[in-house]
Amino acid sequence: MKQFKNDIMRIRLLFSVVYICLFLISCNEPTTISIDSIDPGSYDGTWWNRTPIRLVQTNFPEIYANMDVESYVQSVVDASANTVLFNTGGIVANYQTTLPFEWKNPFMGERDFVRELIGKLHEKNIKYIARFDFSKIDQDIAAQKPEWLYVGTNDKNLEFNGTVAACINGGYYQEYAFKILREVIDNYPIDGIFFNMMGYTGATYAGISYGICQCENCRKRFFEATGLKLPKNDNDLNINEYRRFQRETSGELYKKVTDFIKQQNPELIVYNYNDVGTSWIASESGASMRPGVDNIYHATTNVKRTLGSYKDRIPVNLIMGFQAIGYRNIMSSPNLLRNWWLEDMLHGAPIGFVVVGTLVHYEDRQFIPIVNELFAFHKANEKLFTNVQALNAIALIQGSGNEFQGMMKLLSEEHIMYDLIIPSLLGSDRTPRKLEDYDLIILDDIANMSDELIAIIDNYVEKGGKLLVTGATSTNDERGKPLNRIRLKSLGVKPEFMVFPQAEATYLKVSATDKQAFGQKEFNDFTLMMMNSTFLKCKVKEGAQSYLRLLPSNMFGPAEKTYYSEDEITDFPGVVSYKYGKGITVFIPWMIGSDYNAKGNYAQRALFLGSIKNILGVESDIETNASPLIEMTHLANRNGAFEWVGMINHSGFLGNSVREPVAIHNTTIRLRPLKPVKEIRLLRSGESIPFKQNREWIEYVVPEIGDFEMALCLYKKE
Ligand SMILES: [Zn+2]
């Protein structure tokens, strides 16, 4: 993997030499390359990593266990899925368990539903992932095993629809679950295991919570670990120790379970919501009954953070079809679901769809033909989703909530392609690419940083890297303890700072020099910029360059009294750039992402773009006039067989309703392909299109983008 970027550079160099003598040409060679003839190679030889997984998860109500397995399997075949995730054990066993304290599905009768299903699925080459949910047990078993149960601060167990919550420190999770797993692993040819809701008991599906578990096992274990009494609520003195205890005991259980599974059968993959012993990291994109607008980039976030952070893990982000937990029998907007689904696919991740019930029984069927069609597209082009990796020169480190959301919004709207990396994995050997493979690292209000991580980042800049930093980055230790110093040495400010709290009528004053530096054209129309976040008042280091000046909250209210005077403008800079070693940094000591996420302000956008392009001088490998409504991706096959640009049309978003996207016409794309190109093929419309070539750049126009498009570059034979 480490070689990937170097290989790209080498190929580009060769390519430039090859084309140095060529004139601008228009290419209309006949199209002869068939997708079937492509050899995408393999990422690591496994069936599950960077492979074209199409997963259907049917969350199976117990009453369907008398259904005809053939029609279940046919519905999965019709959907072109190659993997099924199916309720196997835990709350309900859909197989013939011989364990006395596992509740066997009474609707199944004498048949062994799971055995029949696995047999039929495997005949069709469809993998079977067994789903287990150990969070609850049947009420009759619960009555016999009170020591397994969660006990609320009101001294009650937590019951819901005939099930009772189990505590992770009780015998069910710690011992009996292993018997259930062994029974299934020993007797059924499953391909993997998925855990639902594994961990400490929270609120019920209806939002009822009885607080921190007070069961005897928790009481004893917490005392043994800390010598303290269990807290009852968040105001308790021992709460921090308890939260740490929760993290450690959960982590220990995940490790114990995943080690056990690998010991029983090392071939099995584990699919769970964390990275302990897992192969697939689970996440979900689904709507809810919360007020407000759904996050357009929800699935993008989920898949990119795993793709960018782990070379030995893959995200499987499930598109939750249902409207909300309280409305599981009807679907959300098909357009919303399709958008998220396309984000999974066009960022090169597996695709997954969840239905509560089965594809046969579900009553609200508007989305199902769309699912079938999209899955069929993926299947027909599955080689193009095999062994692929994004060609992004920028790494965005996933920071705090709104700051991070705003950064993603800025980058996506501007078609600046980026990888997403989880802060704790930054600089580790688990990431698919090394830090130095990136032209620019963005630290978006990453307050908590270890000394080690700070050294890694400073070192990256010293050796020639570019860095964009916002907010209170590097001011806390790794556990979140405030150190009240800006610790990154590569920034152009002194460590000490004062905090200016968020206040309305606060601006940044823009000077003529600022306009020159960030872009005369983009900054032409304003000399004031909104700033509505916490701001760090910093002193600039010698040799650093400062831009924009803080104009703290001034008079507003009656128009007659809304103005400011020149002497209110401070010397505290809104942006500082600094050359450090061979590299350069830009520090924006406020939350530009969070502000942009809230209001999408054009002046702030101009500042962000000016920082990247003009101050830091980051060059792009892809240029386009695409509408900001198009989310764009650029991936290449690691075996050198192809590369493609993905385009997702988000134009249907209308606040709380998501409608059909409006077709977007004549999108020009210029890019530097990795190898000489023979053909550009649009896979959604099915046409090959002409392209121009100028040295190592090619340029083409996508006539129309409906819901999405995928422009495949096929190379000339070497
Ligand atoms: Zn407990």
Notable traits:
binds zinc ion; alpha/beta; 718 residues; 8-stranded parallel barrel; 15 helices; Rossmann fold; 9-stranded mixed β-sheet; single chain; globular; Immunoglobulin-like
How would you describe what is shown here?
By secondary structure, this protein is of the alpha/beta class. Helix content is 26%, strand content 26%. Mean pLDDT is 94; it is low at 20-29. It binds zinc ion (ZN). The site of zinc ion has 7 residues, from helix 6.
CATH superfamily of the domain at 392-620: Class I glutamine amidotransferase (GATase) domain
Strand content: 25-35%
Rg, alpha carbons: 28 Å
CATH domain class name of the domain at 392-620: Alpha Beta
Order of strands, main sheet, comes to 17-16-18-19-26-25-24-21-22
Instruction: Give start-end ranges of low-pLDDT stretches.
Output: 20-29
Q: Per the principal axes of the C-alpha atoms, what is the gross shape?
A: globular
Bound molecules: zinc ion
Which architecture of the domain at 392-620 does the CATH hierarchy give at level 2? 3-Layer(aba) Sandwich
Please bin the fraction of helical residues.
Answer: 25-40%
**What is the name of the CATH topology of the domain at 392-620?**
Rossmann fold
The protein's oligomeric status is: single chain
Judged by helices, strands and strand pairing, the structural class is alpha/beta
The main sheet comes to: 9 strands, mixed
Amino- and carboxy-terminal Cα gap: 23 Å
**Counting H and I runs of at least 4 residues, what is the number of helices?**
15
Kindly report the average pLDDT value. 94
User: How many strands?
Assistant: 37
